[in-house]
Amino acid sequence: MDCRDYHRQFIDFINDELGFNETSALVSHVMHCEECSSDLKNEYLMITGMRKLDRDPVPKNIPTYEEKIKMMSKKCRREKLFRILSVLFIVASTVISVYFFIKGLVL
Ligand SMILES: [Zn+2]
């Protein structure tokens, strides 16, 4: 994916409508690509700014761009860890089942 592909996902990212893989790829891209980071930040500020104007009397607490990137990065790390643990759990359950199956055959 190049910068233009990431640009197409900005709105969905801001609206939290991207899947895990897309979010993870986009967050790590904007952490290394200054141009995309700057463009995403501008788009984010514009959209959240308009949302703040739309909401009255008390605007909902909207995270800053930096908070949003940090939050999504953390969320992706948690999700990755959860996926790894799920795979480990499945592998461990399979190994245990096979062990008891073989043990049952032997006895
Ligand atoms: Zn880029």
Task: Give descriptors for this structure.
binds zinc ion, 82% helix, mainly alpha, 107 residues
What this model shows, in words?
With 107 residues, the chain is mainly alpha-helical. It has one domain (3-106). 82% of the residues lie in helices and 0% in strands. It is built from four helices and no strands. The protein has helices at 3-14, 20-32, 34-54, 65-106. The chain is elongated. 7% of the residues are buried. Bound molecules: zinc ion. Zinc ion binds next to helix 1 and helix 3. Residues 3, 6, 29, 33, 35-36 line the site of zinc ion.
- The end-to-end span amounts to 56 Å
- The number of strands is 0
Order of helices and strands: HHHH
Question: What class would the helix/strand composition place it in?
Answer: mainly alpha
Average pLDDT across residues? 91
Q: What number of domains?
A: 1
- Count of DSSP helices? 4
Kindly state the percentage of residues in helix.
over 70%
Q: Which sheet architecture does the biggest sheet show?
A: none
Bound small molecules, by name, code or SMILES, are:
zinc ion
Short recap of the structure:
The chain has 107 residues and is an all-alpha fold.
Task: Break the fold down into its secondary structure elements and pairings.
Layout: H1 3-14, H2 20-32, H3 34-54, H4 65-106
Helix pairs in contact: 1-3, 2-3, 2-4
